[in-house]
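Quick one: co-fold with FE2/S2 (inorganic) cluster.
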Amino acid sequence: MVNEAGFALGAVLTVLAVFFHFSRGTRWRPGEDISQEILDRRAETVPETEFAEPGNRAIGGGAVPAGVPAGEAGAELEEGEVEEEEGFDPEAIPEDEVEYHEIEYVKEGETIEVANDENLLEAGEDEDWDLPYSCRQGQCVSCGGLIPDGNAEDYVIHDGQEMLDEGELEDGYVLTCVAYPTESFSLETGETP
Ligand code: FES
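Sure, here it is.
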């Protein structure tokens, strides 16, 4: 009796499974994606920006920070760019404006002419002097030297030194790898603050 009932139930379920498998369903189809429409609608409610449309406005991208008008932010950037442009670039010195200065390398016991587009380290190396250096980019003090006569900025211009503070420059210290002469002077190499 039990086996017959189980068999009958199994047969009914099998028939139902086959029926639903081959049935055509409700013919429901998903509607069109409405997310783009929502993005467009939200975009219309926030200010115009220079970023790509319209997702940027929908997610708040490109919003101007409170209290900083876009015009002022742009002006700051321009100022920074100008400052950079005004930095000293020895390679930009035209050939007919190259000047030579007499530099006495005290410890090496010689005075040589150094052009204003040549740094003090390379000028000394051209003489085969074994001068100290490391980064050659003004970012350490390995190449340090001293102008005993006074304020270094009266005698050299640095191309991007990042190590000497105002007081050390006033004491006459230079970073020879990025120091270019603007006057004649005496230099003690291998001197650091
Ligand atoms: S070698 Fe590093 S600052 Fe000159």
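If it helps, The CA atoms of residues 151 and 170 lie 4 Å apart.
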